[in-house]
Specification:
Layout (H helix, E strand, L loop, with lengths): L9 H14 L2 H6 L17 E12 L6 E12 L2 E14 L2 E7 L21 E3 L4 E3 L7
Antiparallel strand pairs: 1-2, 2-3, 3-4, 5-6
Length: 141
């Protein structure tokens, strides 16, 4: 069994997903994605070079919780330019495993944003918690 399958917190899963984006591990990204929002495929080619992750806030998401939110900032390089993506991501625990669901819209007055350092989301691209994915569904929010 992959030890990442036993991650105990939403933050732990967020950190493992950041590492997967950094390392180009599309298989783990898809396996750690909730089936209700998982894209049919994930293309990481030509994306940003992910540099560092800073967790800004967590809401629930602990070992005994079933839902959690993790707000993060991820720094990257895009075409040699420094960039930062900030997002609040929703996670759910099912069958003892944490899964990424999707980006959460910020509450009015919040400073959190969901900023993509790549091309803007289109009808065939959606948020992945760092980057974009191909799917047959309309873009999220």
């Amino acid at each position: 069994m992959d030890p990442r399958e036993a991650i105990e917190t939403a933050e732990g899963l967020m950190r493992s997903r950041f590492a997967a984006f950094r390392d180009g591990d599309a298989d783990w990204l898809l396996r750690s994605w909730h089936p209700s929002t998982r894209p049919t495929r994930l293309d990481l080619a030509g994306g940003p070079t992910w540099r560092a992750l800073q967790v800004v806030d967590t809401v629930a998401g602990g070992p005994e919780d079933t839902h959690g939110i993790v707000e993060f900032r991820a720094s990257c390089l895009v075409d040699g330019e420094a960039g930062v993506m900030q997002e609040r991501s929703a996670f759910v625990r099912e069958g003892g495993r944490w899964l990424y669901v999707d980006a959460v819209r910020s509450a009015p007055g919040s400073t959190a944003t969901s900023t993509q350092p790549r091309a803007p989301l289109t009808a065939s691209r959606r948020s992945t918690g760092i980057g974009t994915a191909e799917s047959g569904e309309p873009a999220a929010g």
